[in-house]
Structure prediction request, 274 residues.
Amino acid sequence: MQAPASLSAADLAVGYPQRRVLSAVDLGLAPGAVTVLVGPNGCGKSTLLRTLAGLQPALSGTIRIGTDELTALSRRELARRLAFLPQAPLVPAGVAVRDLVRHGRYAHRGALRRHTADDRAAVDWALTVTHADELADRRIDELSGGERQRAWLATALAQQAGVLLLDEPTTYLDLRHQLEVLEVVRDLARDHGIACGLVLHDLGQAAGYADHAVLVADGGVVAAGTPDDVFTAEHIRRAFQLDVSVVRDRESGHLAVFPRLDRARPVPALDPTE
Prediction:
């Protein structure tokens, strides 16, 4: 694996030539830590993550991996140092999990070079740490959502990059499989020194699994820091226009976020004649 690496952005603006989505973004992903991006739908979380991954150009500002500017790296060198898992990867029919994970080694070998002992060791390691080794000989299109996501995680890890970015890795998964994926991500950071950055929708899960959180809304960063710093009723109200109660679970010590709904607002009755 690459040596532990950090990913940082300074005064970053992201979006499209016709529309700026986020401005003045400063953030850092540290080795061995999980950084979670949260915010309302359409606020630019995925656009920011794709820009950090080098998949679309920044409008302004600087992104660095370690001390190297992202734009100075070739595509192959970037893939050796940073792995990105999109929100909904296309599922190749008929491909076994082990063969899928082998594709993660593309950055370490030429198109015509055969797999080496290092490649095989990297694939075996990626399957093991994601608990996907028991799935290795099964077809990816036959797996459940949680199993499939572990296989995709293994494919990204086979790159053996020091930075891992995941765009909503728990989407379409039931609660049990969501937590399994998040546990794997936390283990990757703590046990293997990977700098993990991910987009999540669930504020409770973000508060429970993040070492560092970044809340974005209204074209910029509302708050950044520890979960205690970020997940306050004031910050959440500003970002989501929603009143919440933030409490700490006695057993886990994690924060939990509960919306305070307006029970006084009447719900219109259904008119059966319409």
In short: The domain at 7-259 is CATH 3.40.50.300 (Rossmann fold). The mean pLDDT is 89. The radius of gyration is 20 Å. Residues 123 and 144 are 21 Å apart (CA to CA).
